[in-house]
Write a structure and sequence with these properties.
The complex is a heterodimer of chains A (383) and B (231). Chain A has helices at residues 2-11, 13-46, 68-73, 105-111, 119-127, 136-143, 192-199, 217-227, 240-250, 254-283, 285-294, 298-326, 328-335, 346-373, 376-381, and strands at 51-56, 64-65, 78-86, 99-103, 115-117, 131-135, 152-155, 168-178, 187-191, 203-204, 206-211, 235-239. Chain A has 383 residues and is an alpha+beta fold. Chain A is elongated and about 90 Å long. Chain A starts with a helix and ends with a helix. In chain B, helix 4 (119-132) crosses helix 5 and helix 5 (148-160) packs parallel to helix 6. In chain B, the strands form two sheets. Chain B has a six-stranded mixed sheet with strand order 6-7-8-3-9-10, with helices on both faces. Chain B has helices at 48-55, 78-88, 104-109, 119-132, 148-160, 178-195, 206-209; strands at 4-17, 20-33, 37-41, 63-68, 71-72, 89-92, 166-170, 198-202, 214-219, 222-228. Chain B has one domain (35-54, 78-228): Rossmann fold (3-Layer(aba) Sandwich), CATH 3.40.50.300. Classes of the chains: A alpha+beta (383), B alpha/beta (231). Chain A binds chain B through residues 1, 3-4, 7-8, 10-11, 286-287, 289-299, 375-377, 380, and chain B through 53, 56, 58-59, 78-79, 82-87, 91, 93, 97-102, 106, 110-111, 113-114, 158.
């Protein structure tokens, strides 16, 4: 029967190719769009329950006095505190956008123990005044443009222009790798002290807190907010998850739209596949009649049609998933700036193949049932 | 005296057409012996093909008894009929009814897949059947690459591949030129004479009926008589 399934598929090459092609495109889109949505939500999903973020209650774009750090650090249950300042610069050209933050290296490593960094890189970062570290993916993107450990990376400060009027020069200490999605691998961190002195900065964007194991997070959040209830700058303390979610919220319903587009593509292809398989079933009525006359059962007729549908859809799905995997590095380069966590995960592979399998089942079930129900005499007449 | 291969008692088949009930077979009584070669003749609408379909287990009667090759077909459900067809009967159709995407060999091998034979045995049986119809050298050709007469001979090879006792042929020469028709009739005669196959052949063609040993005449769903040929 396997031979007959293949022969029926190969016997109508144009129809089969179009079906496989449609499923291929649909599954590829599904995998790609899902990866975009996953990337958008990566920070939210990977947020640590042990970290809190303190920002201005007015807006994320309003800075907080650095002097707040001591009082916040003194709240019971706060284990570590790290001040962060969004730099908002660019490398050579504005299209080379990636995130850059001024941080205190010691504070950063205390607050983010999941950061993987070679000891010598860490040492260089701690010791050099204008040192910076970059995520592995970011480094790979610009390696061909001359990024090299020990060399200087000139950054144009859009929010914080260099007093000389030229570029900020950050010496590359090495790379880091984030084991979780809470931090992506496409960010640059540079020395706070260098930034503070050069830009005469007295404020920071947010404080990242690491809370002690077992500490009452709600109490800590409430206590910090109360500290500055009467100003001078009111603060809002949130969980890391909530903090990350506000970035996703900023782009509105885009993740939902993207999900709808993916779902819509699959639905459209499902309808095309159902139509194709119904056509195939009509074309094979006579062949099914022959099989039944020879003694093959209704079950065999059912399997023949369903197997064709499954074969075409699974083949298209496998090609779609394969193409998504093959193009992953290219898309990471192209889309990495906007979707830093873009990756075809095993779950996405499973979703793609599962969707293809489901497409095959749903598209094939009606034609298979109609083939099974065919009366051999009528089928031989082709009616 | 041979055993009855086909025994028909009060066989009735009706169809619904446009709200009307059409009685195609009307209490038919008939008996055909094992090893016989029967031509089934009659005017259009006399019920020839309907009777052939019922005897072949492709359709079910509304009333009456139908014993074929020792089996009461009225007692079998769809699956039972399918198994019975696979084991007991070979079909030859007017339009050949070969599966176009399969080669001649694969078409002949198809019914053998319903048997417990091994792959090698299936190959042996299929090649033997194709050799018998003189088409072994064309076994890898697709139906499109064969002439009508050759296609019909492949269909005969397929009908005998599982070695059924009964071969049912519905106008087997209807779409063939005289020369090809004669080859097919000669082949059917040989299967009857040498291999002791019981053959029931529906035909309009008196020339084709000449190949049979007996001619069964049907009219308006009833038996009009059986004419025995002298040889």
């Amino acid at each position: 029967m396997t031979k007959l399934v293949w022969r029926q598929i190969l016997g109508h090459p144009v129809r089969s190719l179009l079906t496989v092609g449609a499923v291929f495109v649909g599954v590829f889109l599904l995998c790609m769009l899902r990866s975009v949505v996953v990337a958008l939500n990566a920070g939210v999903d990977a947020a640590s329950a042990a970290r809190l973020m303190v920002q201005s209650s007015v807006s994320l774009f309003v800075s907080l006095p650095i002097s707040y750090k001591e009082r916040i650090a003194g709240v019971e249950g706060v284990e570590a505190i790290s001040k962060w300042q969004w730099f908002g610069g660019f490398y050579q050209d504005q299209s080379n956008f990636f995130a850059q933050f001024a941080v205190d290296p010691v504070e950063l490593f205390d607050a983010y123990p999941e950061l993987e960094i070679a000891p010598e890189v860490k040492q260089r970062f701690l010791e050099r005044r204008n040192a910076c570290i970059v995520g592995e993916q970011l480094f790979e993107q610009f390696r061909d443009e001359g990024w090299e450990v020990g060399k200087s990376i000139p950054m144009i400060g859009a929010l914080f222009p260099h007093p000389s009027g030229g570029a900020w020069e950050f010496e590359l200490a090495g790379t880091y790798r984030s084991a979780t999605g809470a931090l992506d691998n496409r960010t640059m961190f540079f020395q706070w002290d260098f930034f503070e002195k050069t830009a005469e900065q007295t404020e920071c964007g947010v404080f990242v807190l690491k809370v002690a194991p077992g500490a009452d997070v709600s109490r800590i959040m409430a206590e910090i907010d109360t500290l500055y209830e009467n100003g001078p700058q009111k603060v809002r303390t949130t969980t890391e998850k909530e903090f990350q979610r506000q970035f996703v919220t900023m782009i509105g319903a885009v993740p939902l739209f993207v999900s709808w587009i993916g779902g819509g593509a699959v639905l459209a292809i499902l309808m095309a596949c159902v139509n194709t398989m119904l056509l195939a079933a009509r074309q094979q009525v006579h062949d099914v009649g022959i099989l039944k006359a020879l003694g093959f059962t209704d079950g065999t007729a059912f399997q023949l049609m369903l197997a064709q549908s499954l074969t075409l859809c699974v083949l298209g799905g496998a090609l779609g998933v394969g193409f998504a995997l093959v193009t992953e590095p290219v898309l990471v380069t192209l889309l990495g700036t906007f979707f830093p966590g873009y990756a075809i995960t095993p779950e996405t592979v499973g979703l793609g193949l599962g969707a293809a399998l489901l497409l095959g089942l749903v598209a094939g079930i009606a034609p298979a049932m109609s083939s099974a129900r065919l009366n051999p005499v009528q089928a031989l007449r082709g009616t | 005296m041979n055993e009855a291969m086909i025994r028909v008692r009060g066989l009735t088949k009706r169809y619904q057409r446009g709200g009307e009930t059409l009685t195609v077979l009307d209490g038919l009584e008939l008996e055909m012996q094992e090893g016989g070669f029967y031509a089934l003749m009659g005017p259009s609408g006399s019920g020839k093909t309907t009777l052939l379909n019922l005897i072949g287990g492709l359709d079910q009667a509304d009333d009456g008894e139908l014993f074929v090759a020792g089996e009461n077909l009225a007692e079998l459900d769809n699956a039972g009929l399918a198994h019975w067809r696979a084991a007991s009967v070979g079909f030859v159709f007017q339009g050949f009814n070969l599966i176009p995407v399969l080669s001649a060999f694969e078409n002949v091998e198809l019914p053998l897949k319903l048997t417990p034979l091994s792959r090698a045995e299936r190959r042996q049986h299929a090649e033997f059947a194709l050799e018998l119809v003189g088409l072994k050298e064309r076994m890898h050709h697709r139906p499109k690459q064969l002439s009508g007469g050759q296609e019909q001979r492949v269909a005969i090879a397929r009908a005998i591949a599982t070695d059924p006792k009964l071969i049912l042929a519905d106008e087997p020469t209807g779409d063939l030129d005289r020369k090809s028709a004669d080859q097919v009739l000669e082949l059917l005669g040989r299967l009857n004479a040498e291999f002791k196959k019981t053959i029931l052949m529906v035909t309009h063609d008196p020339h084709a009926a000449e190949a049979a040993k007996s001619v069964v005449h049907l009219d308006k769903g009833q038996l009009k008589g059986i004419e025995e040929k002298r040889r």
